[in-house]
Amino acid sequence: MAVSIASGTPCLGRFVVKDPGPTLVFLAEDAIGAVRARLEALCAQRRLDIDGLNLYAITASTVRLDLEADQQRLNATLSALRPRLLLLDPLVRLHRLDENSAADISKLLGFIREMQRTHDTAIALTHHASKKHRAQPGQALRGSSDLHAFGDSNAYLARRKQRIVLTLEHRCAKPPDPIEMELVSRPNGSATHLEIVTPLNADTTSLADRALVFLQHSSKPLTRTAIRNHLKVNNQRLGETLTELNRQGLVLQTPKGWVPLDNHHESATT
């Protein structure tokens, strides 16, 4: 997700990024070399130059969100970078509080919400689930129930045989059906990434998103007829969609056909 937002490429190859920009990540359980290796794999899969990726990684050995000094440093970093997304992974390594204490966790989440609103940035937290089975995935989150209630959107990962099932939950929108994914690599073992294996559901994905993903995956300009035949949609509706995407600066009509507009970003350290 962080690479998609930083590069403007579809997340998981399907979900279009409409407002790309810089991202900031802190992977508390990984050495910085491992973080770079993961980023290089994702960039290789998307044919991106990692040196031009608009993504920043926090290299500090620890970040404690319950300590005032670390709060101030993180706020200063967000003020300087103005990222679209801050990814913190995992939450359990970012504090020294009792995760079962509603009072402690509520105060911590209050600081995170304040950061999100002050800096107008999306914040993604990863958190572990218990091994006990629950009727709803959100009920399996470790610690205080405030963690489940806090999320505007929640994504749950569960292993099912050789696949990983992604279940989404939104506070203010109907979620799509669960999505099955596989961890795949090139024949030589490089460019390891998650790939969706669930068929695309036209009812839960907008025509604009489907058209943009199709264009972004094409190596050449596409005619309106080619797009219509692939998406199997009404010609007038497709025309209106392409016009709107063009108005938003996401696609361009050339003499040879429609093309997605590239997203150019300033270089960033990773």
Automatic annotation (TrEMBL):
It comes from the Bacteria. It holds the Pfam family AAA_25. Gene3D superfamilies: P-loop containing nucleotide triphosphate hydrolases. InterPro entries: P-loop_NTPase. This is Uncharacterized protein. It comes from Desulfosarcina ovata subsp. sediminis.
